[in-house]
Specification:
Length: 241
């Protein structure tokens, strides 16, 4: 009998863009896409890994887009935070249908649908084997869900931030616009900030830099990619000090 694989990380924060929950149009919620994601998350949890998720809301509403169209920026950001809670509930439903116990915690109080974020309670859920999904961003306008991911990862003692995208790492320019774009295997926080690379915002990079929190940016659409990263396979780009 083969021994069970040993994960490299025991507690991870998985950052999902809202578009990961949508179909190819990148808009709305696609049951098939969510089911595929939930299956990957279940497989990681079955390795004995504690999983925390921060999910974006761009498939429903983006505050910056609303602001560009005349909505007051803070109001637009709150609307975007509510969109992340919708996505968190959709992902919770998909996970629990696969037998994965979950809790949704929101940075904006809404007791009928989610717990309020309490760090010690979130950690306790992890210790009991539950997947914890954070919605509502940081609860404050002008901050992205990337910043929420960096903040929560440090608060709950995650070992790494896994940023799941549809691009296989960080490039020196947009690989869709520039076929000659170079992909980095590793990059430092300082270089990412100096180059103004847009894969995460500067506040998120700075938080991870100050707290020595590694980030791995990878393509979650590759087969079994989340599990492979957790087991230590070199996928995507690793950002470190």
């Amino acid at each position: 009998m083969n021994a069970a694989p040993t994960p490299r990380y025991r507690r991870i924060l998985l950052k999902l863009t809202g578009e990961a929950l949508a179909d190819e149009s990148r808009v709305g919620i696609c049951p098939e896409a969510i089911h595929a994601l939930a299956g990957q998350i279940r497989d990681v949890r079955e390795l004995g890994v504690q999983v925390v998720i921060v999910v974006g809301g761009g498939n429903i509403f983006r505050g910056r887009v609303g602001s560009a169209r005349g909505i007051e920026r803070a109001t637009g950001d709150y609307m975007g935070m509510l969109a992340t809670v919708i996505n968190a509930l959709a992902l919770q439903d998909a996970l629990e249908k696969l037998g994965v116990p979950t809790r949704v915690q929101s940075a904006i109080a809404m007791a009928q649908v989610a717990e309020s974020f309490i760090r010690r309670r979130a950690v306790r859920h992890l210790e009991k084997g539950r997947v914890v999904i954070f919605g509502g961003g940081t609860g404050n306008p002008y901050f992205s869900t990337d910043t929420a991911a960096a903040l929560r990862a440090n608060e709950i003692g995650a070992e790494v931030v896994l940023k799941a995208t549809k691009v296989d790492g960080i490039y020196d320019s947009d690989p869709q616009a520039n076929p000659a774009a170079k992909r980095f295997d590793t990059i430092t926080y300082q270089e990412a900030l100096a180059r103004r690379l847009q894969v995460m915002d500067a506040t998120a990079f700075s938080l991870c830099l100050e707290n020595k929190m590694p980030i791995i940016v990878f393509n979650f659409t590759q087969p079994d990619s989340i599990r492979r990263v957790v087991l230590g396979e070199r996928l995507g780009t690793r950002v470190t000090g």
